[in-house]
Amino acid sequence: MVISYLFQLLVQGFIMSSNIAPREFAAIDLGSNSFHMIVARIVNGSIQVLSRLKRRVRLADGLDENLVLSQDAIDRGIACLALFAKRLEGFSAENVKVVGTYTLRRAINNQAFLEQAKAVFPYPISIISGQQEARLIYSGVSHTQPETGRKLVVDIGGGSTEMTIGDDFTPIRAESRHMGCVSFAKRFFPQGELTIERFDSAYQLAMEKIEDLMWEYKELGWDYALGSSGTIKTVHQVLIANGYRDGLITESRLQKIIDICLEFKSLNEIKLRGLLDERADVLVPGLAILLALFHTFRIDVLRYSNGALREGVMYGLEKSFQVGDIRQRTAEALAEQFALDKQQAKRVEHTALILFDQIKTWKNRRQVQDLRSMLKWASLLHEIGIVVNHNNVHRHSAYLIANRDLPGFDFEQQTLLSVLMRYHLKGFKRSDIRSINRYQCRDVLTLVRVFRLAVLLNRSRQATVVPKQLNLVIENNALATYL
């Protein structure tokens, strides 16, 4: 019973290796469709999310053609802020950052909203520009995704769409346009009426709004295209639910979803596996904008990012998160939090990398550096499960890694890390190792074998046992070491 309770605490991230109370921060995004709040704390140099809260307020629904925000919409927003305020009791103002986006930017009576908010919400609200919003979204994505180099980051919100190109953590060009899934739903699909003609009209306007960016963005170029927030998250989830396990968005996959949606006569009637009922009435308007983004910027593949505006606001609150490999920071923070034996981890890592560097038969040569990094982090964290129970430590480690929020690691990388934890001890069958979308089955199997050897060779936990010279031989699909 005690161990079970301890295990639950560990999964929730409440056991700390330091006696110093960590700082807690809150970031709130007052979006045109939903209000989002994220509460987190700084643990050994890494952000650890404690809770997320989201409420759909449809603020943009209350913005009329004269840019006046209705009292009903204001009331919905104030009610949500009152709820957030209860969660934030005891927080100092310096640790809470609240930003208002498109609808509050555009509303000529936004001061009425801010005045009424003061009665229930004791924290200042900043209404930010479209470019500021784009930069913060870029920051949120950059701090939660592993991709390095030049990135295109797009975000389709309720009232606006942001598009940013940048290098690593630094945005180069950030733009925002007045087009969102809620505002387009209101303009092109009144009462939810759905026709091909209405979809085409929405698509054409989206194209017109971003055509001036086409050549400059093409000239800047990018290595990866990433997307965040509601519409893109919904498309990602629909793809996974319909058999596309990688969740990657391509034009052909996007067009299939659009074609299915256009078979319905009303937005509210749309039924798709993976589509939440609350997103049905804004999906098609968002798809029209997303298709325009694909065509204008010639996007081949768009990968969903869980990071967005609120994460960008959060990282802006803590200035130490501006450089470095996010995954390394995450792994080191976990090692500190769970007081892992770093000397043993270094021994395992040293041996594992000596063996790894002798292998020349990787099926996907472009992933060699990524696989090598995964081996390093597995070496650092493979004993994390020991704080639950020494028995079946490999199972406990795998479970903890698979079920934690690991900033910087995408789903496939987190899965691979968990697989390395799961099979570094005890027996396993080759059939247990399968491809993990991005990673070939043969490469995963080889990595598991290398890691098992490294752990085995260091089981005495003494630096002098493993010789400096290790030769790896591959015979009949098996790995062997000669000392």
Automatic annotation (TrEMBL):
Q: Which residues form the Ppx/GppA phosphatase N-terminal domain?
A: 38-320
Tell me one GO biological process term: polyphosphate catabolic process
The protein's location, in the record's own words, is: Cell membrane
Q: What is this protein called?
A: Exopolyphosphatase
Q: What is its main location?
A: membrane
Q: What is its EC number?
A: 3.6.1.11
Citing just one GO molecular function, the answer is:
exopolyphosphatase activity
Q: Which domain of life is it from?
A: Bacteria
Q: How does it assemble?
A: Homodimer.
What organism does this protein naturally occur in?
Mannheimia haemolytica (Pasteurella haemolytica)
Q: Which family does it belong to?
A: Belongs to the GppA/Ppx family.
Pfam families of this UniProt entry? Ppx-GppA (PF02541), Ppx-GppA_III (PF21447)
The UniProt keyword set, sorted, is: Cell membrane, Hydrolase, Membrane
Required cofactor(s) = Mg(2+)
Q: Which catalytic reaction applies to this protein?
A: [phosphate](n) + H2O = [phosphate](n-1) + phosphate + H(+)
- Membrane topology, from the record: Peripheral membrane protein
Q: Where is the Ppx/GppA phosphatase C-terminal domain?
A: 326-478
Give the enzyme's main class according to its UniProt record, as a single word. Answer: hydrolase
Q: Identify one Gene Ontology CC term for this UniProt entry.
A: plasma membrane
